């Protein structure tokens, strides 16, 4: 089947990637994680990679995956767990923030043409992933009463995930940001004057710029403020599109996940994020075409209404910075 053009559609439909991407992924896994090969033939290993992608790309679970490949459910469970664990170990390699000012500035240069909006080096948001309720999921219920994970991510303009933080579904986006390693350290990592874009669910900070909110502006926004919000929302579409394409490619994330433990659930989610970035690196364009329905991040935690920052001087600095940016892009 591999290498035959007539099977390209099968790969795209069932494995959610092209044949060439599949072959590159299998080759990389076999060389970077040689323990996965053991005494297996190349053909059998590729079959295992195909099983993984089929499982992640479908909503049928292990039983349907096994039936599709003529293998037992238990064999599929073991195969998926082993490769998922290997991918999760590679998360720091594939999901990382820039390490130098020059790398940050390249991201800013990529964002700028979208809306002539200076200073953007990332966009942050959270998305909910429903999970099956088991004993060790106590406290993981979101505000709709469903057991879930709230996953916060920062992306660049090319939809690459630069960070990923998985928390209980009861956490708000703002709470995740404040407790995350990135949220605590980002102000010392990005170049002076640069910032991450967030929605109104986040606290306004000099390094985290959020939209103007009517209740904080006397109940009504000016033309300048509305213009700023439109530009900010347009640039923030990067993170919404990234989540949308992640879930469309790995459809296991669109239905309640049925893993037996929280650790395995987190590993599967992390593997999906890693594969998303790998496929971007491979320039797999299967989901590149814009899709308004897909590229909306609708499954989110409701926003907190109380958004008061304790440090008044920091808040004032952020407010002034936001107004300065709004004036620049309004001209």
Automatic annotation (TrEMBL):
Q: Which InterPro entries match?
A: HARBI1-like, HARBI1_dom
Q: Which cofactor does it need?
A: a divalent metal cation
Q: Does the keyword Nucleus apply?
A: yes
Which GO MF terms are attached to this record? hydrolase activity; metal ion binding; nuclease activity
Top-level taxon of origin: Eukaryota
Which locations, inside or outside the cell, does it occupy? Nucleus
Q: Which family does it belong to?
A: Belongs to the HARBI1 family.
Name of the protein in question: DDE Tnp4 domain-containing protein
């Amino acid at each position: 089947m591999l290498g035959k053009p007539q099977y390209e559609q099968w790969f795209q439909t069932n494995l959610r990637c092209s044949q060439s991407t599949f072959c590159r992924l299998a080759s990389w896994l076999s060389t970077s994680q040689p323990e996965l090969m053991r005494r297996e033939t190349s053909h059998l290993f590729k079959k295992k990679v195909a099983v993984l992608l089929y499982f992640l790309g479908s909503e049928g679970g292990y039983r349907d995956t096994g039936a599709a490949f003529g293998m037992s459910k238990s064999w599929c469970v073991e195969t998926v767990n082993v490769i998922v664990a290997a991918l999760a170990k590679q998360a720091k390699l594939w999901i990382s923030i820039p390490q130098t000012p020059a790398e940050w500035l390249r991201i800013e240069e990529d964002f700028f043409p979208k809306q002539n909006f200076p200073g953007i080096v990332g966009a942050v948001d959270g998305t909910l992933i429903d999970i099956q309720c088991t004993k060790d999921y106590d406290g993981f219920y979101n505000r709709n009463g469903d057991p879930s994970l709230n996953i916060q991510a920062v992306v660049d303009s090319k939809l690459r995930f630069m960070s990923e933080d998985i928390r209980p579904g009861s956490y708000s986006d703002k709470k995740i940001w404040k407790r995350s390693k990135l949220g605590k350290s980002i102000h010392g990592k990005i170049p002076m004057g640069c910032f991450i874009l967030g929605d109104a669910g986040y606290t306004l900070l000099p390094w985290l710029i959020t939209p103007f909110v009517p209740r904080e502006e006397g109940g009504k926004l000016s033309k300048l403020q509305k213009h700023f919000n439109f530009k900010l929302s347009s640039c923030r579409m990067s993170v919404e599109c990234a989540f949308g394409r992640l879930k469309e490619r790995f459809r296991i994330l669109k239905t309640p996940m049925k893993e037996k433990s929280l650790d395995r659930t987190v590993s599967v989610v992390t593997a999906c994020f890693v594969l998303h970035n790998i496929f971007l690196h491979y320039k797999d364009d299967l989901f590149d075409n814009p899709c308004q329905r897909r590229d909306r991040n609708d499954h989110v935690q409701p926003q907190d209404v109380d958004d008061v920052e304790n440090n008044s001087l920091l808040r004032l600095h952020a407010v002034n910075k936001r107004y300065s940016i709004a004036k620049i892009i309004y001209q």
